[in-house]
Amino acid sequence: MPSAVPARRVEGRISVAPMLDWTDRHCRYYLRLFCPSCVLYTEMVTAAALLHGRDPERFLVFSQEEHPLVLQLAGDDPSAMARAAAMGAAYGYDGLNLNVGCPSPKVQAGRFGACLMAAPSLVAELVAAMAETGLPISVKHRLGLDREEDYDLLARFVETVAGAGCGHFIVHARNAWLHGLDPAANREIPPLRYAWVHRLKADFPHLRMEINGGVEDVPAILGHLQRVDGVMIGRAAYGHPALLAAAERALGRVDWNPSPGSILHGLRLYAEAAGGSLPAPRLARHLHGLAHGLPGARHWRRFLATAHAAESASAFLARAYGVLPSAFWDASFPDAATALGSAPQRIRANP
């Protein structure tokens, strides 16, 4: 196996988590309008779906505006993973990510996702197979399985996988409870232990460590970035995408605050380029967060419910301007930096 390559530290890396059934290509384009520099991830795609599915292109195609974009793969067969990774590389992704965090029963039945934390040597083989593409490889994983609380076991997992050539670890700061909790509960009930991820960075300074789980405001983002290399945001970014823009401003990467009108304009250009091939509901379902925190949010949600499959996304968005007054479209999004209190309190809440 190749030796681990020290990761280049990227100051203030922000990314949007891979979310099954949510972060499709249309959602990613929408989120990119809020956050020009953040790293986007695809939904989890199994190696089997790419190698044996009828239409692998539907999992792989994306818009060039989505860069930087990482393909998340799942599987337990190094040979199959190598072939799936090669397909992703051929499509021009900026990196590949291995899912070692999903706790769903269906994923467990396939012997991939979070249950792979019990097999670090196999994870290392999968990483080595993916690394044959020459693309940067990352692994997204949990702190441990079920109710085990063993930091040394976690550190050995990271050390083993890093030895196969992985220089970037995205750590969901909770355990995965494989028994008794569904995937939704697994995102809420296992306690957050941010300190464990901070400790991993201290113990493995040559590796890129990115934290995930429960990060919902800019103070928390900035607080974590004092201790780790990056922050991955999931449901908060989907439900309140202006958070991404606020983080960009706080990091000094942009000096503007988008408006609902500017986001809608970008979406209309995207939808018009798709012509009639993009039905309105496929885009509209992602847009509830556009009005988050703004007067008129209820009217916007009611409008989104009118999307129907016979209407193109382009025509649907053209109708949007007549739903709410110009004051809504010109409004600035609320400043997410003060939304939920101070970062030090939030980070210490679950040691």
TrEMBL record:
Source organism superkingdom: Bacteria
E.C. numbers: 1.3.1.-, 1.3.1.91
Keywords: Oxidoreductase
EC supergroup of this enzyme: oxidoreductase
The protein's name: tRNA dihydrouridine(20/20a) synthase DusA
Origin species: Acidithiobacillus sulfuriphilus
Taxonomic lineage from the root: Bacteria, Pseudomonadati, Pseudomonadota, Acidithiobacillia, Acidithiobacillales
